[in-house]
Amino acid sequence: MKNRDQASACGGCPFHRRQFLAAGCAACAGAMGLTRWAHATRASDDNKLRVRIIYSLHAEVQPGPDWPNVGFDFRPVMREIETTLKNGCPDIEFVSSMATGREQAVQIVEQDKSARIDGYIVYQLNCWNQVVQTMVATGKPVLYVDFLYGGSGGFLVYTAGLMKTHPNFGFLSSSRMSDVVQAAKCLKLANNGAAAGFGDAVARVRQELTQAPGDLSCGPDPVKTLPVADWRTALRQSKILLVGRELGGSGAKIKEELGIEVVEVPFGVVNDAWSKADKDQARAIADRWQSGAEMIADVTRAELENSAAMFLGMKSVLKEQNANAITINCLGGFYGGHIHAYPCLGFHELCNEGLIGGCEGDVRSAVTMVALSALTHGRTGFISDPVMDVARRQIIYAHCVASNRAFGPAGPQNPYEILTHSEDRQGAAVRSLQPAGYMTTTVEFEASRKQILFHQGKSVDNIRDDRACRTKLAVEPVGDFEKLFRYWDEWGWHRVTAYGDLKEPIFALADAIGWKVVQEA
């Protein structure tokens, strides 16, 4: 799923990964006139609070790849939301609309000038549709709700910015619909002209609803780390290949601060290596994946061999370039016809070997994986699109790629499954069922700011929800769960998570190189 790296137009990020797809879907949905799908859930009653529910999404049935997945039917979801709110808040009159983005949100605001609307509930069903910003600007109380594994990227990025500047903005990310009802009851403040205190009121409810911390004691994991001087030497010997994306000015800063070289490589180099991969070797690797997987669903044998050829192609390019890391603008390459196999299984295999396979052409996360691998003798970690759930006090790290050697190349293997890439149901991807009961460390290294974003948590579960990315490692965070909502607008959506209690070595190396650790929790 696309990462939001910096604040800018389109919700905090330059266009990359699949924004062009989401924009296209929004345009199609706009042509269908989704804002005209508006109705009252009950007859108007002037004595009742009147609240508009706005569903922020591409279309009723998702036409293209994005979270949760192509073909997803939102109509039952919207019916459940409205029924639950109607039953749970009988003293509120609800009307509802759908909006694909800013233009339709503005139309709704104009429409509501001739109607009495006391507040809004904005449900983020797809990730990057910008609707909530327009509603918050009205000054009326706005409850912003995440549809977990559907709208979570936009929800987290937009929430982090709005919560700091708009007291009429409240938010909730929970797997329990009853929690939404409790938060919606805070909208009654609007009857008393107290929109300015709405965000604080929702925050109090959210904190009451958040599950209490559990037992955070962890299983033994005596991870060995390099001394800082040796770690720096290892970074200076590292090279990242950035495929299908321009590096811009960040490469010089990465080289200056960390010593890691980043080199741009065109799609054609990887595609050519894929096409020339040894077919017998590809079949042997596919055999191994097939025999090792606990389950294979909707992935053909031909696609397994195709993914194995991509792995061999990437590995040959790494060898030719004397590099130990590769990150590919994978969806841009696949949908643009520049590459002809998803690299997900190949990234999985590279990380199992202690090399770096990084998703989406995300250089910062690839740098982070190189830094972690060097520090820990090969624990690369994995990139994720996190989701927050107050009902379970969990952060869930979701992506279609992860190693199944969480403790490094020499460590034990954990089970894995081979499924399609979730959002478009094509290709082959990995659900790595990672071990529960261990401390994990989640970081991002940002050379331009000389900062390391940091939090930790105990691995507790592997989530099998069919929505969104295949691997979903659930972790209970150490520290302040509420604080974890604050940094997504500054740092984007991606995080890199590795097994091991790495707090002491991370802080030590930050001190040694003059960087600051930003503690998310």
Structure description:
The chain is of the alpha/beta class. It has two domains: 9-209, Rossmann fold; 228-519, no CATH class. The chain is built from 18 helices and 20 strands. The chain has helices at residues 9-12, 19-31, 75-88, 102-112, 132-136, 152-162, 177-184, 198-209, 228-236, 250-258, 267-275, 279-292, 301-321, 330-335, 344-352, 363-376, 488-491, 503-513; strands at 39-40, 49-56, 92-99, 119-124, 142-146, 169-172, 239-243, 261-265, 295-296, 325-328, 356-358, 382-389, 394-399, 416-421, 426-432, 439-446, 451-462, 471-477, 495-499, 516-519. The strands form four sheets. It has a six-stranded mixed sheet, sandwiched between helices. The longest helix is centred in the middle third of the chain and has 21 residues, at 301-321. It is globular. The two termini are 23 Å apart. The model is unreliable at 1-33 and 35-43 (pLDDT under 50).
Strand order of the largest sheet: 1-3-2-4-5-6
Determine Rg (CA atoms, Å): 23 Å
The overall pLDDT, averaged over residues, is 91
What would the principal axes of the Cα set say about the shape?
globular
Q: Strand content of the residues, in percent?
A: 15-25%
Helical percentage: 25-40%
Structural class: alpha/beta
Main sheet record: 6 strands, mixed
Number of domains: 2
Distance between the termini: 23 Å
Low-confidence stretches: 1-33, 35-43
Number of helices: 18
* Strand elements, count: 20
